[in-house]
């Protein structure tokens, strides 16, 4: 949504960087830049070049016709030349083209809990993942509203129609592939979700005022391979070692692998093509980004895969906002992130297996399940060779099949009930699923209590306010208090109780 043209702010351009940061923080009430921000505050944030504002708004410069991230290192434009937008799609809809220097397509997003409208945010998340790009019907059905209402709410809160937003996401991904890889232009267009190369070329010329070949010439000389390695930016600080240790401790043999500071896993059923392959994620601390390598078999649905990896590694978090609420609890590790999950069903099964047993024991059982009923997969890495069984595959098993692996009968019945609900479409374990109704559905399944439901919300729904208050470690952090009293005491940590949980676990 476009802001009103700002008036020049006297004295802004001469202020020192640290003074600009203080002014921006004061004007925005901390760090929260949103759709209601006035132009003067946005301009102060732009001058500060503070990474806390990255991805929270974009600035269009009328004298150049270009829109940038607020951290762009080019010379700051005059306030009278700036217009501010909440999304890249809104900036492009106003006629601006993306900056080739700061590259708006790399900007981190915002947490679901930051959105002023949950419906519009959920729709945007689905579009980010490539869901609903063929039309509004699928999107509206998954959210549970009519197409007309969805279009109206989306336009009101994000400043563009859902179709225009989806088109911008495809264009930005095509630009990223043309700028970061040496893939043929036709293949980059297909991977970005365009059915027609001609349509992709026409949109790039219309929106960016350059040809795909011009974008291709922006590829740095250091890119000497023909693979797909994409940059995923985040807001620092980022505790890479902590999240890597978390995944390493719980890595299912054959399915996941953590070696020499790199995370790898087998991935199944990405997108509509139902393909499978592997991904590799490494860390580039110097440039505040993760690097995602993708096997050739997964390149048909990059939007969905990028969105899933961003959720798994919690790249859209604003750590300073979390630390401001958690205070001393987060002081030791301000860059701690919520570990998410690419496969919600797989993670939920592992949550059930982990009830009242050690992490090592649960990982062993999950490994047996994958080895016995999973699908073999050839990868480039020794020891990474298995797909975890899908919900449909597990739903077809008998209780005795699971008990034979050493899984308790009660756990086996819970897993089968979960698999049947997911395979039947009654339960969705994805980040765009409604939290409260999903928690209620989980608790209604046999053997799933509040702890398991909250843990699944934290890992599978990427819900930052999940709080398993009956957890033993959390109870120990509140000596003398009953679980209900612990829940009341944790109200001070809302809406970031999920991060508080991770900090308490890490301290223990």
User: What would you call the quaternary organization?
Assistant: single chain
What is the CATH architecture descriptor of the largest domain?
A: 2-Layer Sandwich
Counted beta strands: 11
Helix amount? 40-55%
Report the CATH superfamily of the largest domain.
DNA-3-methyladenine glycosylase AlkA, N-terminal domain
Domains counted in the coordinates: how many?
3
Tell me about the biggest sheet?
5 strands, antiparallel
- Describe the global form: globular
CATH level-1 class of the largest domain: Alpha Beta
Poorly predicted parts: 1-35
Structural class: alpha+beta
**CATH fold label of the largest domain:** TATA-Binding Protein
Strand content: 5-15%
Kindly report the average pLDDT value: 87
Separation, N- and C-terminal Cα atoms: 45 Å
Number of helices: 23
Architecture blueprint of SSEs:
Elements: H1 17-27, H2 39-48, E1 58-61, E2 66-68, E3 82-85, H3 88-93, E4 97-98, H4 118-128, H5 136-143, H6 147-158, H7 162-180, H8 185-191, H9 197-208, H10 212-216, E5 228-233, H11 240-249, E6 256-259, E7 262-270, E8 275-284, E9 289-294, H12 302-312, H13 319-326, H14 344-353, H15 359-373, E10 375-376, E11 386-387, H16 391-395, H17 399-403, H18 409-423, H19 435-444, H20 450-459, H21 472-476, H22 483-489, H23 497-507
Parallel strand pairs: 2-4
Antiparallel strand pairs: 1-2, 1-3, 5-9, 6-7, 7-8, 8-9, 10-11
Helix pairs in contact: 1-2, 4-6, 4-7, 7-8, 14-15, 14-18, 14-20, 19-20
């Amino acid at each position: 949504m476009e802001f009103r043209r700002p008036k020049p702010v006297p004295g802004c351009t001469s202020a020192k960087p640290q003074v600009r940061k203080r002014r921006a923080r004061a004007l925005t009430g901390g760090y929260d830049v949103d759709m209601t921000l006035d132009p003067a505050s946005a301009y102060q944030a732009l001058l500060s070049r503070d990474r806390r504002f990255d991805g929270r708004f974009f600035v269009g410069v009328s004298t150049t016709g270009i829109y940038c991230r607020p951290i762009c290192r080019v010379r700051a434009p005059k306030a009278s030349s700036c217009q501010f937008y909440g999304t890249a799609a809104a900036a492009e809809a106003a006629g601006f083209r993306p900056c080739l220097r700061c590259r708006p397509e790399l900007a981190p997003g915002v947490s679901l809990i930051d959105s002023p409208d949950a419906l519009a945010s959920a729709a945007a998340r689905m579009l980010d993942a490539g869901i609903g790009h063929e039309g509004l019907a699928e999107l509206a059905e998954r959210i549970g509203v009519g197409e007309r209402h969805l279009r109206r709410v989306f336009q009101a809160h994000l400043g563009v129609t859902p179709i225009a937003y989806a088109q911008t996401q495809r264009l930005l991904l095509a630009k990223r592939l043309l700028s970061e890889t040496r893939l043929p232009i036709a293949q980059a267009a297909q991977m970005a979700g365009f059915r027609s190369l001609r349509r992709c070329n026409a949109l790039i010329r219309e929106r960016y005022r350059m040809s795909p070949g011009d974008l291709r010439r922006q590829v740095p000389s250091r890119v000497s391979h023909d693979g797909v390695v994409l940059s995923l930016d985040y807001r620092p600080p980022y505790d890479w070692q902590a999240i890597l240790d978390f995944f390493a401790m719980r890595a299912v043999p054959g399915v996941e692998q953590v070696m020499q500071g790199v995370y790898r896993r087998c991935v199944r059923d990405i997108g509509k093509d139902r393909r499978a392959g592997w991904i590799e994620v490494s860390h580039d601390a110097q440039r505040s980004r993760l690097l995602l390598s993708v096997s050739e078999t997964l390149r048909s649905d990059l939007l969905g895969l990028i969105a899933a990896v961003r959720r798994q590694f919690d790249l859209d978090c604003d750590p300073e906002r979390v630390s401001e609420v958690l205070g001393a609890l987060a002081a030791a590790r301000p860059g701690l992130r919520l570990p998410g999950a690419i496969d919600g069903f797989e993670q939920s099964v592992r949550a059930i297996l982990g009830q009242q047993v050690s992490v090592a024991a649960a990982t062993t059982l999950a490994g047996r399940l994958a080895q016995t009923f999973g699908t073999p997969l050839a990868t480039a890495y020794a020891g990474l060779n298995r797909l975890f069984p899908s919900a449909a595959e597990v739903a077809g098993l008998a209780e005795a099949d699971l008990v034979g692996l050493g899984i308790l009968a009660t756990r086996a019945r819970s897993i089968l009930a979960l698999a049947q609900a997911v395979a039947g479409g009654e339960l969705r374990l994805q980040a765009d699923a409604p939290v409260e109704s999903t928690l209620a559905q989980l608790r209604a399944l046999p053997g799933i209590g509040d702890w398991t439901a909250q843990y699944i919300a934290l890992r599978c729904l990427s819900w930052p306010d999940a709080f398993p208050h009956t957890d033993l470690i959390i109870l120990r952090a509140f000596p003398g208090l009953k679980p209900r009293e612990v829940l009341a005491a944790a109200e001070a940590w809302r809406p970031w109780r999920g991060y508080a949980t991770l900090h308490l676990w890490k301290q223990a």
